[in-house]
Amino acid sequence: MSKIPDELFYTEEHEYVRRTQDETIVEVGITDYAQGELGDVVYVELPSVGTSFARLDPFGTIEAVKAVSDLFSPMAGTVTEVNEALEQDPSLVNGDPYGEGWMLRFRVKNPAEFEQLMGAEEYAAHIGE
Amino acid sequence: MTPFPYQPDPTPLIFERSKPGRPGVPVPRATRGAEAYLPAELLREEPPRLPDVPEFEVVRHYVELSLKNHHVDRALYPLGSCTMKYNPKVNEDMARLPGHAGIHPLTPDEFVQGALELMYEVAEALKAIAGMDAITLQPPAGASGEMTGILLARAYHTARGNPRKVVLVPDSAHGTNPATAARADYAVRSLKSDARGQIDLAALRAALNEDVAALMLTNPSTLGRFETDVTEIAKIVHDAGALLYMDGANMNALLGRARPGGFGVDMMHFNLHKTFSTPHGGGGPGAGPVAVTAALAPYLPVPTLERDGERYRRVWDRPDSIGKVHGFDGNYGVLVRAYTYIRINGREGLARVAEGAVLNNRYLSARMADTYPLPFGPGMHESVFSGTFLREHGVKTLDVAKRLLDFGFHAPTIYFPLIVPEALMIEPTETATKDELDRFADVMLAIADEARRTPDVVTGAPHTTPVGRLDESKAARQPNLKYEWPTD
Amino acid sequence: MAYVPHSDADIQAMLETIGVTSMADLFDSIPAAQRSTAAIDVPSALPEVDVVREVTRLARRNAELVCFAGGGIYDHYAPSAVNHILLRSEWYTAYTPYQPEVAQGSLQVIYEFQTMIAELFGLDVANASMYDGPTAAAEAVVMALGVKPDRTDVVIGDSIHPHTRQVISTASGARQLVSLPFGPDGRVDLTKVGDALRGAACVVVQQPNFLGVIEDLEAIAAAAQEAGALLIVAADPVAMAILKSPGSQGADVVVGEGQGLGCAPSFGGPVVGLFAARRDYLRRMPGRLSGATVDHDGRRGFVLTLQAREQQIRREKATSNICTNQALLALAATVHLALLGRTGLRHIAERSLEGAHHAFDAITALPGYEPLVDGPFFKEFAVRTPKPARAILGHAAERGVLAGVALTRFPGFVDREALLIAVTEKRTDDEIARLVDALRTA
Asked: What digits encode the pLDDT tens for the residues B183-198?
């Protein structure tokens, strides 16, 4: 069983979204389930601050030893911060996906898009747990 | 693998054996230094750091390293889709004759008639085997052959007013197929295989339209199975104005039994390092000639080869040609080896090659199938087994592959094709005796048995190799790709 | 036949185990309409001895000439030990090191090769090799276009090998090739670089260039940096023994033809392409990479690494469609460089340089032979000829000498009646005298 925190929102592509104290800013990473399926993460390619994305646009890639996957923006928005620690230590994504392994913070363009994300229970069903 | 470790373990790098100032092999010397001929601002101040090691120690170093390799001359190397057959020794002698190895590619044609004749004969033989009208020998590898083929398709469609946008690739295809199509600036659309592991005709019809340039088909497929609908596939593709490209990786199963030109293929590449016994060299060189129908011939790379009585010449003046895919005329040394193989086998022997390859594989499959399931049935020259039944013991296909190494066999291709879970793709080739196939089958059955009784032995394998399982995550997270010389 | 091993009894037993009655049954899956009935139209089988006779006849139909031809392939000497290492089954009958535990030999050699090539070119990382120099250049252009996705121009010096230009044009997908002329000294015309490079993804030049002349890379690098374009240099690894490395002069990518490092001319293939780059481009590089790591006991070992760039994982999004490399030739280059060491490679470069200058002096003293360009050269130079170059080649060949390459055979040079002449360390004073004599009497 992988960890699926109740307070987060999820996409079908296994990204999570966390609300922050600033209502307009969210934090994005990949789920515990996703890191488990990929195996040891060796590299995360992230966009630069200021880049804008539409919902479900690819915003980067994540590489494991024998797999690679696109990362998809859960919502439309503009990147305000990138987790630079991942450049030195991509294993943070494996060790602490919901904490130190976060990837982006970005300014949400359209809060109505929260409606299109899954809750924890729904995501658990999506991955069959 | 190294029962008598004469040398330190691990083997030092050649740089770690270096002591600055020791002379290498004796070579001719100039009477004056470079500064006598060139302005100082062009010259290096320090020579590049290369190892200073005496000849005998260089030889011992590379002999010691060689002992850490598995290879075809040692034992079965059943790497599926790679056709690791025996590489006849005479091929090596022929390629090294000074009249072949020593010739310069820019020599005027009249002084290299032997080379051009040999290339012409290889071309004729491959055209006959393919049942096609024209050929280029220039692509230096299979992937390069694919690239050439797709560029030919682009030229063909462009000449007809529309280069088109999409190349169709089955989901069972080798990764080079989609990578090649993308590289030639086509969008790639993946075609789902049907329950037989073959092209789904309905899906193919639905995917075809006037934007589709070509379908890339591997036949026999990567499951080792003949695409029984191939004539229908060709018709559907042609009706849409598209071309049928065949990846000839698996020609070993078809030699003398079926001609791609006869079942509607417009262009195909050969892998001379698979089907025609030229050695794999530890990962190259190969050769990937591309045979085509007359409609595609105008676009072949330059130069093409023509015969005029007993004279042969390279022809450069071909305005519709796609250009060049290799600096010179391809891997000539590989062609000499393939030519030697073709002449020794002759028409009778080449047909026997396919028989032997299929007989060996079907026999091995029959010996293993009760234990290792074949989701799509046995293939012709290779079969794809599934290792999912081992999951309940905590054993994966990767573990089986590693355990095989302890028994002195190379592992099969694993986790490919992608449509078979926990895939084990085994290709024994025709150059294995029944006794060796029996020994291999016995070992595979014994490993399945170990997986049930003592899974730790399997998951901890290999136990007898020069190194154990290596930390690939560390290698990728902290790339260390060259030796750092100590600062003097 | 020759290489199929079974006795009739074995075949019967195998067919029984399979559950079929005849060999023909094994091909049942091929629909009858697609089965060939006629024999393959190739000659009948021959005993090995007869094939040796035939392939030897073909070898003898190639003239044995003292080689002054270059143009990318050079007649350098490979010490005997190189070939003896190559002929070990462990090297030439193995395949790509997919199972690192039984391929540590191949993987360590690749790591040593990467070290040597990065060192020669003065860059951070080198890959496991490419098909040849021109295809490596095309791969570099593909990489540059990926690094600069909003740019389409690829600037190519007219002084690079015409075949390299052709391969780039055919195989890199570059849409817009911009040409960069050379001046009377045979070097890239520096007054034209700035304009040509504006908005370009990359510029490709050769060192020494197609005419043998040594380019001013520092000036070109400065212009490339100014324009935000990548500088790609196709370099001769043997020249690196004495010339400043392109990496140290500001190149971003250095490719090259490695044939001169222990590989036979072999009519142009198999040879070995070299590819090195700055570390910034590591994850966009094409081709295999061997990396050092440890096993579970902490023992040093090597694996193919950063494979997520490659086609077997990334499929249509891969950095290249390349699958294998030219491993055996990369081994030849590695052993060759290990045998020569620091001073050996330098002696070879200096001897080639000296021989080329002696030949140049003697030939340009002949009536009607003049230098085509007047820039500094390494081991190759071009001279205008008093008669059609092809006719001179024929005359010299009758005297056992391949007197170079006629420039007229190359696109871009068809109206230049000139010979491109290369001299390696293998050429003796006596052979150079024969060349000069052949040109004099032509």
From this structure: 999 999 999 999 999 9
CB spacing of A68 vs C283 below 8 angstroms = no
Per-residue model confidence (pLDDT) at position B311: 97
User: Beta partners for B212?
Assistant: B166
The DSSP letter of residue B375 is: T
Over range C188-194, report the average pLDDT. 95
Q: What angle do CA B96, B98, B102 make, to 5 degrees?
A: 100
**B410 close to B401: Cβ distance less than 8 angstroms:** no
Q: Chains with ≥3 Cβ pairs under 8 A against B?
A: A, C
How far is Cα B317 from Cα B301, in angstroms, rounded to an integer? 11
Bin C403: left if φ > 0, else alpha if -120 < ψ < 50, else beta.
Answer: alpha
Span B343-374, pLDDT tens digits: 999 999 999 999 999 999 999 999 999 999 99
Q: Are C32 and B337 in contact (CB under 8 A)?
A: no
**8 Å CB contact between C363 and B25:** no
Whole-number pLDDT of residue B1: 47
Alpha-carbon distance of C72 to C137, in angstroms, equals 13
B445 CB contacts (<8 Å, ≥6 apart)? Answer: B368, B371
Distance (Å) from the C-alpha of residue A40 to the closest C-alpha of chain B? 6
Nearest to C313 among A43, A45, A68 (CB): A68
Instruction: Dump the DSSP string for B449-477.
Output: HHHHH-HHHHHT--SSSSS-SB-HHHHHH
CA distances (Å), B128 to each of B122, B289, C51, C200, C223, in order?
Answer: 10, 13, 20, 46, 54
Least Cα distance to B291 among B130, B441, B483 occurs for: B130
Interface contact A58, partner C, CB < 8 A: no
Q: Please tell me which of the candidates C19, C47, C305 has its beta carbon nearest to residue B472.
A: C305
CA-based nearest residue to A87, from A41, A120, A34, A30: A41
**Does residue B488 register a pLDDT over 80?**
no
The rounded distance, in Å, linking the Cα atoms of C17 and C12 is 9
* CB-CB contact of C318 with B175 (8 Å): yes
User: Which residue, chain included where needed, has tokens 């004749």?
Assistant: B117
Percent over 90 (pLDDT), chain A: 84
Question: Which one, of B114, B112, B102, B27, lies nearest residue C264 by Cα?
Answer: B102
Residue among B387, B380, B360 nearest B441 (CA): B360
ipTM for the predicted complex comes to 0.97
